[in-house]
Amino acid sequence: MGSATDQGVVREIEVSRSALRKANPSSSGHSAVVCVTRRGEYVTVQGRLTMGELWLTTPREMYVVDISAREDVFKVDLPSQEEAFSFAANLRVRWHVADPVAAVRARLGAPQHSVKQQVEVRLREVSRLFDLESSAAAERRINLDHEHLEIPLHNGVVVDGCRVVLSLDAEAREHIAKRTRARWTREDLAITGETEQQSHLLELQRTSFQRELEALREKHEMDLKMQRMSVYADALRTDNNNLLALRLAGHGEDVNDVIEMIMKQRQLEFNGASAVLNSLLEANLVNRKDVAAIMANASNMVIDQLGGPKGLDKAAEPRPAVAADAVRADRVEEDDDDDR
What pLDDT is recorded for position 328? Predict the structure, then answer.
C-alpha cells in the first residue's frame, strides 16, 4: 500500500512515434493507461499500443493513472457537543482511484485535500453528538461506522474507509478536570446531606420511641399507683390498719398521699358531724354543753385515727364518756332555767 506524496496520481506521457517506440506503457494492477483519441474520446488502454496503432492511430494525449491503494494521515479538529471545544482528531484514510477516465477528465493531481474535506464533513456530524468527556465513545462510534465505509468522490476517487484517534488539548483537559472536580464535590455534598438526613430521621425516630416508652412507663406507674390507692381506700373504709401499714411498708413514696387521703376522709366526717350538730342546735334538740362534749370526743377520735395502729389500739380502750344521766340532768336544768 502506497503512502501519500506530493506527486499527482495522473501523469501525462509525451505522445510521439519516437517516444512511444522507446516507452510504450501498458495498464497493470497499480496503474491504468488512458488515451485521448483524435476524435476526443477517452479510452482505457488494456495492453501496449501496436505498431499499427502507433503509426496509423496515434493518440492525441496519453496519461498514466496511479490506481493503487493509498493511505494518508490528516490532523483535524472535530467539534464537540459544546461547540466551544473540539476533539483533536488524527485521521488515517484509505483511498484509491476507481475511475481512471474520470480522474483524467478532472486533471486530478493530488486529491488529498478533497479526500480530507469529504471525510471531515462526515465525521463532524458524528462528533457533535458527544461531549468532551465522551471522547472514547465518540472515537468508538466513528471507527465502527467509517472503518469500512466507501465514500465515492466526483473525481473518480473512492475512500475505502478511515480510522480516527481522538484526543483533547490542554485547555479542554483542564476544563474537564474542573468540571469533574465540581461534580465530585456535588456528589460528596449530596452524600453528606443524605447521611445527615438519615441521621436526623433516626434521631427523630429514636426520640419518638423514647417518648412512647416514657409515656407507657408513666401510665404503668400510674396504674400501679391507682391500684395501691384503691387498696388504701378500701383499708381506710374497713379500718384495716394492719393492711394499710403492710402496703405502706413496701411503698414509702405513698405515705403523703395516704395521709392526705385520711385527712380528706376525716375532714368529710368532721364536716358531716358539724353539720348535724348545727342542725340539732338550730332545732334546740341539744345544748352547748352537749356540743362541746361531742366535739371533744370527735377530735380525740380523729387524733387517734391519725396516730396509726398505736392510736387505733388506744382508741379501742374504753374512754370516759359523758354519762347519760348527767346529760339528762343538764337538759333538765336547762329546761328549768328556760321555764323561769
Answer: 44
Give the Cα separation of 205 and 283 in Å (integer): 70
Domains, the chain, ranges and CATH? 2-66 (no CATH), 70-172 (3.30.479.30), 262-339 (no CATH)
Q: What is the pLDDT of residue 315?
A: 38
Residue 64 main-chain phi, psi, to 5 deg: -110, 125
3-class DSSP state for residue 144? helix
At position 12, the amino acid (one-letter code) is E
Beta-strand relationship, 70-79 and 2-3: parallel
- Contact between 55 and 80 under an 8 Å Cβ cutoff? The reply is no
Q: Half-sphere exposure of 246 toward its Cβ, with a 13 Å CA cutoff?
A: 6
**Greater model confidence, 312 or 49:** 49
Q: Which residue, among 253, 279, 268, 250, has the nearest Cα to 305 in the 3D structure?
A: 268
Task: Please state, in angstroms and as integers, the Cα–Cα distance from residue 283 to each residue in 72, 271, 287, following that order.
Answer: 139, 18, 10
Confidence of residue 324 (pLDDT cuts 50, 70, 90): very low
**Residues sharing a CB contact under 8 Å with residue 148, sequence separation 6 or more, in sequence order:** 160, 161
Q: Say yes or no to pLDDT of 337 above 60.
A: no
pTM for the structure as a whole: 0.49
Q: Scanning the structure block, which residue is given the C-alpha cell 501523469?
A: 11
User: How many residues are given for the chain?
Assistant: 340
Cβ contact 254:222 at 8 Å: no
Ranges 12-26, 68-82, 204-218, 299-313: which has the least confidence: 299-313
The C-alpha cell at 88 is 483533536
